[in-house]
User: Fold this.
Amino acid sequence: MATLGFIGAGAIGTTLARLAIAADFDVVLANSRGPQTLAATVERLGARARAATPEEAALADDQVVVSIPLAAYRQLPAAALEGKVVLDASNYYASRDGHLPALDAGELTTSELVQQHLGGATLVKAFNNLSAHHITALARPAGAADRTALPIAGDDPQAKAAADELISRLGFDTVDAGPLAESWRFEPETDAYTAPYCADPDALWAAWTQLAEALRTGTPPQAYAPDPGAPLPADRLRTLLAGASRKLTADRVIA
Assistant:
């Protein structure tokens, strides 16, 4: 029986774990606060899920999904992840993660930074460019006419092939965006980030702008109703990736 480890059990990690169980995986979930804090999550996911430490999740199988705030990347268990394919869903928000000069300047992408810490693992950037509720809304069986494509990036062709196979089992096609150095093409606020998966992209941008103003002024943000999602075919995603402009921290609405 195939097993998939998850380091990070927030909205993205838990949503993907649910899809993995539906795709006949056992799942091992970990967070930074200890297995005991995941009891309710594991109960909701059912008998094929169990809670563990990050080291145990890293050793669960040859592929591990990492979906943690970037500020915590140095806490990833590098030794336990050695030799693994790591699907990295991290994004950089300086207001949350603290300023990282190499990322602010565009000297590295987020996943290149994580790869430096995980020298013995092989990273594939994936799952960072759409929301958890869109993952749920847009997953489809292989061959479905309205299947959605997700971008991936990585430096190792075999690792990308393994990631493609896994992501297909979870319900999505993939588009190869190139090496980790090109993964900025689907980082926050680029053309391939979140908005093209929305039924109403204008509403999303308006919500981001309002949130940025709320963060700037310290006022409570307005509630935003989850968008129902719209399928994004592979050809359209390729066009968005090819035409992307890099958004450094200073260029973004929400930094």
Observations:
- The chain is about 35% helix and 15% strand.
- The chain has a mean pLDDT of 95.
- The chain has one domain: 3-198+226-251.
